[in-house]
Design brief:
Arc Repressor Mutant, subunit A, alpha/beta, about 55% helix, Rossmann fold
């Protein structure tokens, strides 16, 4: 049985090459850096799975998927994007994207999702496991994975999305503490430290996707509650728009 064909269309050299190297033993891998080349390869290479950056230069990912669909080309698609709004969610769902991940993406998580896609023969709407999606949100904001606050934040965002009306201090922190076998006070302090670390080294272009700058043009350091609630809202939007 021949290996499935995979096309990676991403302008980030490091991510594209690392992903190709991780998958080359199990897939026939082709790579490209822009949308026009990707569309050409969809016609000539006919991949089984497409890993697609929606923000490709020369031809964006949504336009590429529309053109491919018009030609009857419908590979399984894992889409990645630094920015997700209602329009992106609706269009990826409409165009048959199977999975949507926030950038920057962890290579191993991306490999796992590609393998999942290849194991399932049928298309499904764009989907994202809540914990994976929350992880990608935190990574995009630069929350250091080496800090305990990263894991506490990931759990907190998922739990808050499940019950947005719960009290942060009286319900959420104790619930995260129970999951992670620590005290609620430790959860609160660790999350605060993780946010501080990320905020001081933030990329304003990314943070402005979630938080508005103040009068001086600087993004204020969000409180624990503000960041958890904002990311939980984003997760809820993804779940409502992409999960069955």
């Amino acid at each position: 049985m021949s290996a499935p064909k995979l096309l990676i269309a991403d302008s980030n050299d490091d991510f594209r090459l690392a992903l190709a190297e991780a998958l080359q033993e199990h897939y026939h891998v082709h790579c490209c850096q822009n949308g026009k080349n990707a569309l050409e390869l969809l016609h000539t290479y006919r991949p089984d799975v497409l890993v697609l950056d929606l923000m490709l230069p020369e031809l964006d990912g949504i336009s590429l998927l529309q053109a491919a669909a018009d030609s009857g080309i419908r590979p399984k698609v894992l889409a990645t994007s630094r920015f997700v709004n209602d329009y992106v969610l609706e269009m990826t769902k409409h165009l048959g994207v199977n999975y949507l991940m926030m950038k920057p993406c962890d290579v191993q998580s991306t490999v796992n999702r590609i393998q999942d896609l290849n194991r399932h023969p049928c298309h499904s709407p764009a989907a994202s496991d809540p914990k994976v999606y929350a992880s990608n949100l935190l990574l995009s904001l630069g929350i250091p994975t080496k800090l305990r606050g990263y894991e506490y934040l990931r759990q907190a965002v998922v739990l808050m999305a499940q019950d947005p009306e719960q009290s942060i201090t009286k319900e959420l922190y104790p619930a995260v503490g129970q999951l992670c076998h620590c005290k609620a006070g430790h959860v609160e302090r660790s999350i605060r430290n993780a946010i501080d670390a990320a905020w001081h080294r933030r990329d304003d272009r990314v943070w402005m996707q979630y938080f508005s700058p103040g009068p001086d043009g600087t993004i204020p350091r969000p409180t624990n509650a503000a960041l958890i609630s904002r990311l939980a809202d984003n997760l809820l939007l993804n779940q409502e728009g992409t999960l069955v």
